[in-house]
Amino acid sequence: MKQKIQLTVLLLVITGAITTLSCKKNKTGESAKTKTELLTTGSWKRTILTSNPANDCYGNGVFATDILSVMLTCEKDNFDTYQTNGIWE
Asked: Are 81 and 43 in contact (CB under 8 A)?
């Protein structure tokens, strides 16, 4: 019985040590980036664009919730860039 308790304690200590050592530490001293910093670090390609309720984007009577499916081909391949001052390109 004493051996089972010692084995259980040993397994718990090993598990705790592995868990503690496997966590990544931020060694550079930098804090986590804000949502604004993450959003403004580069350009973004649209992969989905939805609207609820359905919208008639071009005024042609075609209402859609999946806006990307009704966009013109030349609009689908654009990249969006967001700036920290609130400007969207």
From this structure: yes
How does pLDDT run across 23-59, given as a tens digit for each residue? 666 666 667 888 888 888 888 888 888 888 988 878 8
Please answer whether residues 76 and 68 qualify as being in contact, where contact means their C-beta atoms are separated by less than 8 angstroms: yes
DSSP of 32-83, one letter per residue? PPPHHHHHTSSEEE-S--EEEEEE-TTSSS--EEEHHHHS-HHHHT-EEEB-
Q: Residue 20 and residue 5: Cα distance in Å, rounded?
A: 22
**Residue among 71, 15, 18 nearest 47 (CA):** 71
Determine the Cα angle at 40 with ends 45 and 50, to 5°: 40
How do the domains of the chain map onto residue ranges? 2-26+33-81
